[in-house]
């Protein structure tokens, strides 16, 4: 089986060295409105740089107007405001310092800084009535989103009903000292938590959304922050009870936030999504299905026409990666061992030890329909134990529409690599 798949990769994959070599992939995307770009780690330089080049071409050649990423809404709003000249920030690096939640290197890095500079210049030089946007669609920013809501309401309706609801929500969470784990344990085992408070806040904001200022996207900002507060409360409450359910809540939230952005930009808007392969690669084509887990890629496909969605996965055989060996500790530059024998990355490497991309189509889809281990590296990573949980059994031609393989990769470049420069094997 492996030999036949290697031969098929050799037949159908195309080598690439630069953005221009990816033109067949751009052409294949066609008129899709949602392009999801994955990554097999959150700490690989080439994944970010290739996604940047693809995003630039999609913006310039296909009319895409939004980049939505696996990041917090409030932090990404600093970027969005900066590239649209809504803020007084003096530099890109100053803006990226707003990414304070661990792992900061996911967005506070040199590769993203280059893209943000490009987006700002593109917006400044273009005559678009609606500038290119950059948004975070993740669910973690419970406290920050509540702060954003309060700051806005204190300026615009200091005596209104919404601010009273916001105060009640904040007061409900106050005993937990902004510690998500404390709230998760308490709400899951000892009380119903603050679900009523954040639900009423969101319902009120939605009912009065026409009254919010449209200037500098204030209306979208308060609405999505309210959605984050409601869904984050649900996520943290589920977190200690069920990994599968909390995962599903998170990915449903990301799709809900994505749909809000698309609605705001208009029915014909085109969106690029940057997230890990485990989020964008259709979960129904993996063993996640057996665990009752869904993800962004699956939901987006289910909610839209097939021709409107295009998913691209990413992977590597070996190199280095920026990651940590425990949650919340300092980052390291770790060595990625050669891919496990018989895995998808191993097959791509044996088919040709060079950068290449593979488009799945009617001609070759059946050939790539075997269940194969596909490497996934998280922000917490231990290369020594990689074979015990870093490979997701996947039907690659169903999980993605195309796959970009980079044979040897390098760790991401954080803005300040001050924690450590250890190379860990």
UniProtKB/TrEMBL annotation:
InterPro entries the record matches: Emycin_Estase, Hydrolase/PRTase-associated, UCP036794_erythomycin
GO BP terms, alphabetized: response to antibiotic
Recorded superkingdom: Bacteria
UniProt name for this protein: Erythromycin esterase family protein
């Amino acid at each position: 089986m492996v030999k036949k798949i290697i031969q098929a990769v050799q037949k159908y994959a195309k080598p690439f060295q630069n953005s221009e070599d990816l033109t067949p992939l751009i052409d294949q995307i066609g008129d899709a409105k949602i392009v999801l770009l994955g990554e097999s780690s959150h700490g690989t330089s080439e994944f970010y740089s290739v996604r940047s080049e693809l995003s630039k071409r999609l913006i310039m050649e296909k009319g895409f107007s939004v980049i939505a990423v696996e990041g917090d809404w409030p932090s990404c709003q600093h970027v969005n405001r900066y590239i649209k000249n809504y803020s007084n920030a003096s530099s890109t690096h100053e803006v990226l310092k707003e990414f304070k939640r661990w792992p900061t290197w996911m967005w506070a890095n040199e590769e993203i800084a280059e893209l943000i500079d490009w987006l700002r210049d593109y917006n400044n030089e273009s005559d678009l009535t609606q500038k290119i946007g950059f948004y975070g669609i993740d669910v973690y920013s419970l406290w920050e989103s509540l702060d954003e809501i309060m700051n806005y309401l204190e300026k615009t309706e200091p005596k209104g009903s919404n601010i009273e609801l916001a105060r009640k929500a904040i007061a409900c969470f106050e005993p937990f000292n902004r510690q998500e784990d404390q709230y998760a344990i308490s709400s899951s085992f000892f009380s119903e938590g603050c679900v009523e408070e954040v639900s009423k806040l969101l319902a009120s904001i939605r009912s009065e959304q026409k009254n919010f200022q449209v200037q500098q996207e204030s209306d979208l900002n308060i609405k999505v922050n309210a959605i984050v507060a409601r869904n984050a409360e649900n996520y943290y409450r589920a977190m200690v009870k069920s990994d599968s359910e909390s995962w599903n809540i998170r990915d449903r939230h990301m799709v809900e936030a994505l749909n809000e952005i698309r609605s705001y930009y208009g029915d014909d808007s085109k969106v690029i999504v940057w997230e890990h392969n485990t989020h964008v690669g259709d979960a129904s084509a993996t063993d996640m299905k057996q665990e009752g887990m869904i993800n962004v890629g699956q939901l987006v496909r289910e909610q839209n026409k097939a021709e409107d969605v295009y998913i691209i996965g990413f992977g590597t055989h070996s190199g280095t990666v920026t990651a940590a060996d425990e949650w919340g500790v300092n980052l390291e530059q770790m060595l990625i061992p050669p891919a496990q024998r018989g895995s998808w990355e191993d097959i791509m490497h044996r088919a040709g030890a060079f950068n290449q991309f593979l488009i799945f189509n009617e001609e070759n889809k059946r050939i790539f329909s075997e269940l194969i281990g596909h490497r996934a590296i998280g922000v917490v990573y231990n290369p020594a134990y990689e074979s015990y949980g870093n490979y997701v059994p996947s039907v690659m031609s169903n999980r993605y529409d195309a796959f970009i393989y980079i044979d040897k990769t390098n760790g991401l470049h954080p803005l300040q690599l001050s924690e450590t420069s250890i190379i860990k094997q």
